[in-house]
Amino acid sequence: MKKEEIFRRMLKSKFFIIGFIMVSVIIVISIIAPYIIVHDPQKTMLKLRLVAPEYFSKGWMGHIFGTDPLGQDVLTRLLIGSRVSLLIALVGVTIPCIIGTALGVIAGYYGGVVDSIVMRFNDIQLSIPAMVLAITVMAIFGNSVPNLMMVLIIVGWVNYTRVVRGIVMSIRDGEFVQASRALGASNLRIMLTQILPYITAPLIILMSQQVGIVILTEANMSFLGMGVPLPAPSWGSMIASGREYITIAPWTVIAPGFALMLTVLGFNFLGDGIRDVLDPRSKD
Amino acid sequence: MVQDNRQPVIEVRNLKKHFIIKGKGILHAVDDISFSVMPGETVGLVGESGCGKSTVGNVIMRLLPSTDGKVLFKGKDIFESRGSESMEYRKKMQIIFQDPYSSINPNKTIRSILSEPYIIHKLGKGKELNEKIEKLAEMVGLENYIMDKYPHELDGGKRQLVGIARALSLSPEFIVCDEPVSSLDVSIQATIINLLMDLQKKMNLGFLFVSHDLSVVRHISNRVAVMYLGKIVEMADTDTIFANTLHPYTIALLSAVPKIDLDKKPQRIILKGDVPSPMNIGEGCRFAPRCWMAQDICKIKTPELVEVEPTHFVACHFNQDSRKSAEGILKK
Amino acid sequence: MTPLLEINNLFVEYKTGRATSQALNGINLTIEKGEALGLVGETGAGKTTIARSILNLLPKGVGHINGGEIHFKGKSILDMKEKELMSLRGNKISMIFQNPLTSLNPVFTVGEQIIMVLRKHKKINKKQAILEAEKLLEMVGIAKYRLSDYPHQFSGGMRQRVGIAAALACDPELLIADEPTTALDVTIQAQILELMKDLQRKRSSSLLMITHSLGIISEICQKVAVIYAGVIVEYGTVREVFENPQHWYTKGLLNAIPKLEGPRERLASIPGNVANAQQLPTGCKFHLRCEHCTEKCKTHDPELIKLNDDHYVACCEVEERINGTR
What we know:
The structure holds three protein chains of three kinds. By secondary structure, chain A is an all-alpha fold. Helix content of chain A is 73%, strand content 0%.
């Protein structure tokens, strides 16, 4: 599609506009977070534990959203935690996408034995629940961000393989692919120059839909203690630590919960919006 | 036809292509086909769906592997070629497809589509490449403004011109035209047919023109081969095959074409039954089940393709009686 | 005598979010009782739009009738309420579509689909309907035991026969056939054409045959209308129009077709591009491609003028020639 057409559709899709604004805000916040925080996210001040949200009563210097059980400022941890969530989302989407796409293209293009092997791995991977894998990995290798990313990658690539494989299979016998072969193009060249452009749009849509899922997965794992290890701030672990105090200090749970919700919602809207823009079938 | 001492640009010898369909058996798509194409001339390959004509084109172009038989380009076996020799044949033998909507990648600009052949064979880049593709576009009558457009912005006729330009880009000597005008409107068909014939003359191209449209085939071909269920049932010079049609299938096929004939009501042979599929075919003439003159021998013995007059080949046990018999049963 | 179908000055446009297409630009057409009229034109000329308009089945929200009238047996179709239209469709006016694969519902047997049509319009019980359906299948040359088969069990040609049977189930007065044989092999096409000719002979119904093939029209129709860019440019008996074409587009079409007999001359192609319905030229819609274009053609939209009882043409150049000699 031409650029003008893409712009026109972007402006027409409410999902896209809302999602884009929300995600942009979140990204900008996560980038400038270290420069705007007033408190140290990991400095524990037990004297100040579970202080109720002061909002703006003490200006910017106060604990706007209160403090958590260890006296750490909630808002500060929220802001820094956004960096964690987004970074893990980035890695947890792009790398599985690359791996899954490569395997999907190879399986779909060559078919036969290659396809069977790849799809069997795919099915085996799919049948292992993410949490079980996470627990196993963490138990063996310990709890760390790199290990978390590894789990997300292992679990995530299968989301792309089957979709990509399906699309590749539908076009691999198409006439324009045959025409390339007739011109003498090698298989690799065909995969890169003919097939990849075809799957770009569906992939982008898929990726944007996966972001929300990955963020929530990380939050779940951190909540269960298998994700980002303390004392580093992560929305999931913030909810975990605040859980016991939910009756007396609900802000410790509500704040990160809300942050998660808005982020995932924003990415979901953006994902739907991108689908509106790129999916040729949603023409008016 | 005068004895031709030139070497054919393409010679197909006993070509076979079978597909094994799981659970159903063997599909004899192409079964022992032989013919030659001379430089600068067109062989028309006609038939209905399932006859194998498109498969012949695809196998010659090595888009499908053959089951048996040879294809010679100027005397050399192309199936045996490897490496750079194989790439040379890619340049010399090209194909134009039927569907202008699916034969060019919808995600690429015309410029990108036309550049691809040169890039694959490392024949130019940058400014030099642009000049080459502009010349190419000119050759087929396309204006430069289309270069930066996407296929969906062009109509069917222009898209087909892009496909033709692409096929010509590497200066081939032989082109398989697989129903190149079947999807196009009549007025555009004429433009494309004229263009192909002009290019053929200019570049001395050999064409294998695959089509189900007999009028178009008659117009453009020097020789015509009629296929039925994987076999050639009749082959001759164009004028001969239309004037002295001998195989009952060809007779029926010709009579079936709707014609503008205002004076006499067209006479037609109506074949019974459907066009069958070439699955698990046994012995005997493949056309027998639908043939009005079929005798017992037809069901048992497969007729050979014999030369009944110079350069006119027919595969029918009763080819001498077919015309008379046809007149007898012509439907008013 | 009132013609069976009369279309007067019909204007139809398609509006999508992006653009507006002027699909029909003042169509004038009549079909008499018992007559077979061929409507010939190329892609995008408006043939299918006319068919849909007659049944008032333009895509909702996208297709708009902007002017003109359609009268069936004297009654205006465009004024009819949906209920009245539904009793017309499949009953008095029937349609056969191009693609027999998609025009039959794959989840119902062929028998069920024919019976559905029968029972909707005729007051008969199921047993009678089954008998009727069997008779219809036989009429189109299909064994009656196949009533219980599904569409995918039939070949393309057989499916089209089923389509014909369903269309003729209620003995329509007007049968609209939209490229019924285009998707079929040549020998199967011949079977279907012979069947249609046969049925035409036996019944007194009218036929609107929409096709791009002049050969088919010559065989099966008495009258022909040539359509270009939503306008009827020439109309008359098949003999008149094909032997003595007057409009330059008709002449172009006839010369562009390769022949099966006679000398093989270079095909005459029509210069330029098919008219873009989103950006129609002023004046005569064909003038940009016409080698005989005069000044008047560029601004004046010609109307159909009568050359004789059997021949009408819409062309400024022809008009000027005639007026010049008068």
